[in-house]
Design a protein that fits this description.
single chain; mainly alpha; 2 domains; five-stranded mixed sheet; 21 helices; 5 strands
């Protein structure tokens, strides 16, 4: 029997379960890495992959602009400000140049690598919190199954179904967290001597790595590590709000354009959340407190410490969210998204939950593992099919995409000049079947401002608010536009092309059309 394994899994596993628990050594072996590689493939199969969607509508144009500065001559101010603060775009552009792979292929490789490294971090962390190999792998498998679980009302996932710098930052934060729990000894209490030079150096290195690709996530990761590392008052065990917030920003004026853009981001405002989203904030905090008490009873001091501090961290984030998103005087700070604290909280919450289920329920029973994980993965798989109903579940780099919107955007890339300027429905990304594909990312052409992604950049950089408001105001009533309205856009903004839903608008020359979309010139 392996020491610390009360169930004797190493010697008494059933034949069906031995394949998994033979991977239960504390050190990460070659077999562990192979199993993690298979788990990564399974995670991608469940969550899918979609190039050019959601936030890639911001990041991909920035990468393409680095590779070819002649692109996006009319609208780069709507995506470059958000990407200049990190090296993610430069990193991807460097890989594209020196591997001679396409941007889509490089981003897909980064997605696979990010998920693998996150799962590796999860496995390593569970081995520092639990004795049983069933706990190690159940926690890791649960995270792999729930990568696209909604995080309350934040509009975040643990890992998006497209490549995002947040995934790289997440893996870096997990590895920084490992330095807080040195040595794979679950029964050993947390030693504050981990602030000695070597562990502290690794924490700084991993936090710096996270900041290089996603500053906001690195900030909240550093805040969580502060909750873990520093002794708090015995009664409060909390930090004051003034200790971490940039107070000078509280009084910065918010223009009318900024307010209009910021209020499109309903996930930033707690009062706009549904009741079940608010429950998704409160319930994990209460459960984590229960986990902490359970861990103390079972002599798992590291687990108890982590759960307790994680609950306090979440409570702090909730308090900051209430303070910053409800009073009108602090509205200017909503883009700091204090509820982002729940991203790392959800990841660790499900990691611990899965580990506890593996420890006491699944153990070495293969049929229990199948009964638990197969329906869960099928449910997550089905949910992703509904969200991206008009696209392949995995949009492989270089493969032909049957989505008619993507086909139109790709036609534009290959058949219009680089300085072409387009107008689209300002809410085109939310149209049925469009599946949140970004025009700039797929077509590599400029377009007028929209109501879906551009407001996120405006919320962070108010200086572009007036131009954004001017453009989206000019696009109001899009569904009823006639040729005269398109000519007005050409005269006012220099737009030469439009992308329209079928059947289009009579009187326009449309050199491309398919079952859903027309691409037309404005004469």
């Amino acid at each position: 029997m392996r020491p610390g394994d009360p169930n004797g899994c190493a010697g008494s596993c059933s034949a069906g379960g031995r394949w998994l628990f033979s991977l239960g050594t504390m050190k990460t072996s070659t077999r562990d890495h192979l199993f993690l590689a298979g788990l990564t493939a399974g995670a991608i199969l469940v969550q899918g992959y979609h190039f050019g969607t959601e936030d890639q509508a911001i990041y991909v144009p920035a990468i393409r602009k680095i590779l070819d500065p002649t692109l996006y001559p009319h609208d780069s101010e709507f995506f470059l400000p958000q990407t200049r603060a990190t090296l993610f775009g430069n990193l991807v552009a460097f890989m594209v140049r020196y591997t001679h792979l396409s941007c889509a292929a490089v981003l897909f490789i980064i997605q696979i690598s990010s998920i693998y490294l996150i799962l590796l971090g999860c496995l390593k962390l569970t081995r520092r919190l639990f004795h049983e190999s069933s706990a190690h792998w159940a926690g890791t498998c649960l995270v792999a199954s729930l990568l696209t679980i909604p995080i309350a009302g934040t509009a975040l996932y643990i890992v998006d179904e497209y490549t995002h710098p947040g995934a790289l930052a997440t893996f870096a934060l997990l590895f920084a967290l490992l330095a807080v729990f040195p040595g794979e000894t679950p029964g050993k209490p947390v030693d504050r001597a981990c602030l000695r030079p070597r562990p502290l150096l690794w924490i700084i290195v991993w936090l710096a790595a996270a900041a290089l690709v996603h500053i906001q996530m690195a900030f909240y990761g550093a805040l969580f590590l502060a909750f873990l590392l520093f002794k708090m008052p015995a009664r409060a065990e909390s930090l004051t709000l003034s200790a971490i917030l940039p107070l000078r920003s509280l009084w910065e004026p918010a223009s009318a354009a900024w307010k209009k853009a910021a209020r499109t981001r309903t996930d930033h405002y707690l009062l706009l959340w549904h009741w079940y989203e608010l429950l998704g904030v409160v319930a994990p905090l209460a459960i984590l407190e229960g986990y902490a008490r359970l861990a103390r009873r079972h002599q798992l001091p590291r687990l108890a410490y982590l759960c307790r501090r994680l609950a306090l961290y979440g409570l702090f984030g909730l308090t900051a969210g209430v303070v910053l998103t409800i009073p009108a005087r602090f509205e200017r700070l909503t883009p700091y998204q204090p509820m982002r604290t729940f991203h790392i909280l959800y990841l660790l919450f499900f990691l611990v939950t899965g580990a506890l289920i593996g420890k006491w329920v699944l153990r070495n029973s293969l049929w229990k593992w199948l009964v638990f994980f197969v329906p869960l993965c099928c449910g997550m798989f089905y949910a992703q099919l509904q969200i991206y109903s008009g696209s392949p579940h995995i949009e492989w780099p270089g493969a032909q995409d049957p989505n008619p919107w993507v086909q139109a955007f790709l036609w534009i890339r290959h058949n219009t000049p680089k300085d072409a300027y387009f107008a689209l429905n300002p809410r085109f990304m939310k149209l049925p079947g469009e599946d949140y594909h970004g025009f700039r990312a797929m077509a590599e052409r400029s377009r007028m401002a929209d109501y879906v992604k551009d407001p996120a950049v405006v919320a962070l950089f108010p200086d572009i608010g007036n131009e954004w408001l001017k453009q989206v105001t000019a696009l109001q009533g899009w569904k009823h536009f006639t040729v005269k309205d398109f000519v007005r856009l050409k005269q006012q903004f220099g737009v030469g092309w439009v992308v329209l839903e079928q059947p289009g608008v009579p009187g326009l020359d449309c050199p491309y059309q398919n079952s859903r979309v027309r691409v037309c010139r404005i004469e």
